[in-house]
């Protein structure tokens, strides 16, 4: 379960992590009141469960309460990355001197929590060069002792005054992670402002679904909203990502392998979508139609036909494409049960299918790059 930024920050604040002054608003009038309470320039931030809000126009600034009201009027009720903006967070505008990344996740190989930190914050952790990232696993029997924080801030190259604050926030962030059975919690960016104070300018908290029954105190939101909920209602597993190539595969392992292969050849996946082993033609077509709403540059479909037969997949792809009317290229890797029939159906409808995952990945990356260049 993902918590909205304002809810994550409420949890952070209860653990003593400094957050900007402000509050959430559901109407323009409430946004104006929140800005008046802050008493200075504010940031008006869309509350949707998606990354890259700033680049997508979901965060704006206002110098006066009246401007905050106008910003909220522009944002509320509109869609951002396929999600409807129902609330905005109005908080003080920070005079930022430096941005840091700080997060705690699960290292599944080590079977331990993993601290991830970088002196370069404000961008996706995937975009930060590996040499600029500090990683350290944590023994859950010991936790984050003070020396761990000191070691990490030293490796980040932070000065003593800032480093002391960051080390303290790291220890508190780890406590948030453990206390809430989180899969991920991060502050990006953790900012140094005028006067040398360190503040969590953003906040993210993802709680393990299987542990929700233990956390009645959490300010729950709907587990899934917008497009994610619509796709899950079809009986398929979906996670939104931040690329431009929509991905559909059948099985968690093959889907992860598809994402890895796509990224190996320079592609940026827009989502993880595991259609499962028994998804029918209608469900597949509905999922594709919903993904088209996100505006992908291309589709990569990777199906190993077992329970889900290749001819049924081919019919679903054709049905979805015809129903949508979208001019988006499909690259298909189709092998397994009724493979020859599936390839025949696709060929007769002007769609090519590959047998090699690598060939399909290279083809879709080239198509997406070509469309991106044409658009620019």
Blueprint of the fold:
Blueprint: E1 2-3, H1 5-14, E2 22-25, H2 28-38, E3 42-46, E4 59-62, H3 65-75, E5 79-80, E6 83-84, E7 88-92, E8 96-107, E9 112-118, E10 133-137, H4 146-156, H5 160-179, E11 182-193, E12 198-200, E13 204-207, H6 226-232, E14 237-240, E15 245-249, H7 252-264, E16 271-274, H8 281-292, E17 298-305, H9 310-324, E18 330-336, H10 339-348, E19 353-354, H11 357-375
Parallel strand pairs: 15-17, 17-18, 18-19
Antiparallel strand pairs: 1-13, 2-7, 3-4, 3-7, 5-6, 8-9, 8-11, 9-10, 11-12, 11-13, 14-16
Structure in words:
Helices cover 37% and strands 26% of the residues. By secondary structure, it is an alpha+beta fold. It folds into three domains: 72 residues, Dna Ligase, domain 1 (2-Layer Sandwich); 119 residues, D-amino Acid Aminotransferase, Chain A, domain 1, CATH 3.30.470; 150 residues, Rossmann fold (3-Layer(aba) Sandwich), CATH 3.40.50.261. The strands form five sheets. Strands 1, 8, 9, 10, 11, 12 and 13 form a seven-stranded antiparallel beta sheet that branches. Strands 2-7-3-4 form a four-stranded antiparallel beta sheet, covered by helices on one side. It has a four-stranded parallel beta sheet with strand order 15-17-18-19, sandwiched between helices. The longest helix has 20 residues. About 1% of the residues have low confidence.
Low-confidence stretches: 221-225
Number of strands: 19
How many strands, what sense, and barrel or not for the largest sheet? 7 strands, antiparallel
Structurally, the number of domains stands at 3
Judged by helices, strands and strand pairing, the structural class is alpha+beta
Q: Please identify which CATH superfamily of the largest domain we are dealing with.
A: Succinyl-CoA synthetase domains
Oligomer: single chain
Identify the CATH class of the largest domain: Alpha Beta
The portion of residues forming beta strands comes to 25-35%
Span of the ends, CA to CA: 36 Å
Helix-residue proportion? 25-40%
Question: How many helical stretches?
Answer: 11
* Radius of gyration based on Cα positions: 23 Å
Overall 3D geometry?
globular
Assign the CATH topology of the largest domain: Rossmann fold
**How confident overall, as mean pLDDT?**
89
Q: Which CATH architecture of the largest domain would you pick?
A: 3-Layer(aba) Sandwich
